[in-house]
């Protein structure tokens, strides 16, 4: 398995997803979800920008990324009693203007 970058910060995970970083999987432990992204130099730079409050993204895209993450979490909650785990395949469409 490749190295991963992990964060428990929901909003940082939304920023990383919105910025085009690949979410590998997420895991819930004692009610806390950890998001795992492909570990690369670019995500470490993105994390530095995010936590130094120097990051910027398109607001609608960021909101959509948060909704995707929430959907994954709620889907996982709904299936937890049945022992199922849903993995969401990511699609990112980049529109050139």
What does this structure look like?
There is one protein chain. The protein has 97 residues and is α+β, with helices and mostly antiparallel strands. The chain has one domain. The chain contains 3 helices and 3 strands; from the N terminus they run βαββαα. The protein has a 3-stranded antiparallel beta sheet, covered by helices on one side. The protein is globular and about 35 Å long. The termini are far apart.
- Order of SSEs: EHEEHH
Distance between the termini: 37 Å
> Number of DSSP helices?
3
Q: How many E-type strands?
A: 3
Average pLDDT reading: 83
* Dominant shape: globular
Whole-number tally of structural domains: 1
Relative strand content: 15-25%
Q: Which stretches are poorly predicted, pLDDT < 50 over at least 5 residues?
A: none
Oligomeric state of this protein: single chain
Helix content: 40-55%
Derived from helix and strand composition plus strand pairing, the structural class reads alpha+beta
List keywords for this structure.
97 residues, alpha+beta, three-stranded antiparallel beta sheet, 3 helices, 42% helix
């Amino acid at each position: 398995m490749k190295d991963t970058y992990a964060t428990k910060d929901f909003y940082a995970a939304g920023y990383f997803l919105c910025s085009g970083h690949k979410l590998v999987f997420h895991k819930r432990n004692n009610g806390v979800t950890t998001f795992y992204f492909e570990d690369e130099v670019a995500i470490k730079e993105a994390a530095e920008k995010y936590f130094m409050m120097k990051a910027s993204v398109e607001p609608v895209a960021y909101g959509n990324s948060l909704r995707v993450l929430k959907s994954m979490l709620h889907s996982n909650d709904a299936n937890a009693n049945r022992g199922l785990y849903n993995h969401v395949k990511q699609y990112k469409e980049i529109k050139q203007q």
